[in-house]
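Page 47, continued from p. 46.
Same chain as before, 224 aa.
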Amino acid sequence: MPYNLDRIKVTIKTNRHDNEGIFHIDTLDLYQARSREAFSEACAKYLKVKSSDVMADLNVLIGLLEKERVEMLKEKNKVEVKPMSDIEKQEALDVLADKDLVKRIIEDFDRIGLVGESKNKLIGYLSVISRLLPDPMGLLILSRSGAGKTSLQDAVCKFVPEESLIQYTRLTGQSLFYRDKNALKNKVLAIEEEEGMTDALYSIRTLQSSQKLSIASTRTDAKT
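Result:
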């Protein structure tokens, strides 16, 4: 079953309870009234049942599949957050209390291979940890071609926990609108190139300024 919210495309096999050798099988979109009607009429023809009974069963099936799809989406977007050990917590507190914390952060960038650009590295680091604040920062890296934009972004993202990082090469215009309600909360959304977010620029700017996205859309009534 697909995750698309505007269709439920399934393959259904039906048979008579008193003779499993007599059956009808077809693939259809349950959100399309004509598809449901055609399937019901075919079942009535081949299985000798009432098409109205088949339609009623299809409506029940739609409700069950909608619930199942919601659970599948929740499971798909679920990310397991690994709790910190006591040792890790103490190490983090020790680093946080270091009077040379900024220097250590820059040195850590050097250790993973990004040398120089101290100010840019620090700005990038502050941007990603701001994900935990009520009003997080947004960061756009600009430079001439081949000057190291990707290297800087990749290095900054290495300091983000795996469960808090969402990376895309490209975003479509409405892709962010259909994520789970809190799917982006306290997360870093990283897009590789400016061209990759062109279609979604409106939603990204709105997300940065309003900290939320909403959309109203229409779909075919499954019961008509």
